[in-house]
Amino acid sequence: MSSYHDPVLLRESVDALITSPEGTYIDLTFGGGGHSREILNNLTSKGRLIAFDQDEDAERNLLHDERLIFLKSNFRHLYRYWKWLGIEKVDGVLGDLGVSSFQFDEAQRGFSFRFDAELDMRMNKSYKNTAADILMRYERNELQDMFSRYGEIRNAKTLASEIMRLRESGEEIVSSFRFNQILDRLRVGDRNKYFAQVYQALRIELNEEMLSLEEVLEACVKIVKPGGRIVMISYHSLEDRLVKKFFRSGNAEGRIEKDMYGQSLSSLKQLGKIVIPDNEEQKRNPRSRSAKMRVAELKILDDK
Predict the structure, then answer these.
(1) Using CB atoms within 10 A of its CB, is residue 149 exposed (0-12), middle (13-18) or buried (19+)?
(2) For 107-207, CATH number?
(3) 8-67 pLDDT per residue, tens
(4) Terminal alpha carbon distance of the chain
(5) Which CATH number fits domain 10-102+209-298: 3.40.50.620, 3.40.50.1970, 3.40.50.2300, 3.40.50.150?
(6) pLDDT tens per residue across span 204-248
(7) Local structure of 224: helix, strand or coil
């Protein structure tokens, strides 16, 4: 379990999520089952948990609990599955976003620049395209936009141009270490930070992570009951920015709409301040250092 994923902000997220021990909850990112296990530990026999994960490796960690329903799917399909299950509105949704430690540490998955492997990066291995396909097929402007938007790379234009030059010379960029050699020639600033940003951009583009997050946030508003909670743990500024805007305004654009009396029309109410792991957790699990947790509650009727 711990080798797959050390759950980040475990106690804080579950405490924020559960409002009724007999309620129905959703874990959008089952992974190693750490958050799911803790949620179940806090539910009575009448409670229920629905867990999503598109990664087939997550199925190895399934918990044998009759209160758990596991769905092998991208969480972006949350609303469709909720309709399919035919259940009432749920009490809360938890999302521990990003890539698990297991996925980063499995060399053949291609998520990390630390290993020499094929540039795969598929969260769902049934997908046909890989990160290498993006490098070999995207046009120059598409590559530049991807690196700039999802990696916030300062020399995105230079990087895109170099990739195109190598492709036009007949080279295929399919392995992480070959890609790293290219990045080493072009990197700006700290090596690890630059590499992490470039790999992040590829991963987000391939797996449509930002679009999936936007879709699941919109679904949460539809399926969580008044007084229920939405808890999101993000690991990079793009995710956190989207969650922050959505929780503040009720939409992905961050557009705050008000009624004739100046009251917000958003169905969400932000709870508390942003939560980050304490020093002890960051020392125990270095990958938790970038984690940020935000919590929102669905407004009860007439709740201002």
Answers:
(1) middle
(2) 1.10.150.170
(3) 999 999 999 999 999 999 999 998 899 999 999 999 999 999 999 988 777 888 889 999
(4) 42
(5) 3.40.50.150
(6) 999 999 999 999 999 999 999 999 999 999 999 999 999 999 999
(7) strand
